[in-house]
Design goal:
This protein is an alpha/beta fold. Helix content is 47%, strand content 16%. Helix 1 packs parallel to helix 5 and helix 2 crosses helix 3. The protein binds 5-O-phosphono-beta-D-ribofuranose (RP5). 5-O-phosphono-beta-D-ribofuranose binds next to strand 3.
């Protein structure tokens, strides 16, 4: 039976602390993750090979994280029609704005779905939502995630109402 599988590629191991949040959300939903360090600039041939083989290697979605002149998501997207989600990493003097614009401002024809700066959890969730079209067992997991999130907000609401009443 086919398994949902996401490639989580980062430009450097220094991106890993942020990228972990995408991996966690995917693993919590029983989605197979292959995590890799591949640099668009330092190992361009490897980036090309990974992207060209992605569909045959069973990847349904690719998440690509990079900081600074963040060309990794765009380069991967150029070599595959598997959907690519880019995570701009806050790793430079420009606080991630450089990466955000490098990832979001793709030319027409080669889209990269871009989440916010360091928005790794949303990248994982968006990948899961895309996968849920093909693997419908993920739908319940997405709904459970949202219900848990709403329950947290309800708790916070009750707490703040109590605290505000005491001021
Ligand atoms: C980017 O440059 C990487 O994605 C990382 O965010 C940043 C710094 O890389 P290192 O110098 O820490 O390897 O390519």
């Amino acid at each position: 039976m086919e398994q949902p599988k996401v490639g989580v590629v980062m430009g450097s191991d220094s991106d890993f602390q942020v990228v972990k949040k995408a991996i966690k959300v995917l693993k919590d939903m029983d989605i197979t993750v292959e995590a890799r360090v591949i640099s668009a600039h330092r190992t361009p041939e490897k980036a090309e090979k990974f992207a060209k083989e992605a569909r045959n290697n069973g990847f349904d979605v690719i998440i690509a994280a990079a900081g600074k002149a963040a060309h990794l998501p765009g380069i991967l997207a150029a070599f595959t029609t598997v959907p690519v989600i880019g995570i701009p990493i806050k790793s430079s003097a420009l606080d991630g704005m450089d990466a955000l614009l490098s990832i979001a401002q793709m030319p027409p024809g080669i889209p990269v779905a871009t989440v916010g700066i360091d928005g790794a959890q949303n990248a994982g969730l968006l990948a899961a939502q895309i996968l849920s079209l093909k693997y419908t067992e993920i739908v319940d997991k997405l709904e459970d995630f949202r219900a848990a999130m709403a329950a947290e907000v309800e708790k916070k609401d009750a707490k703040i109402r109590e605290e505000a009443a005491d001021i």
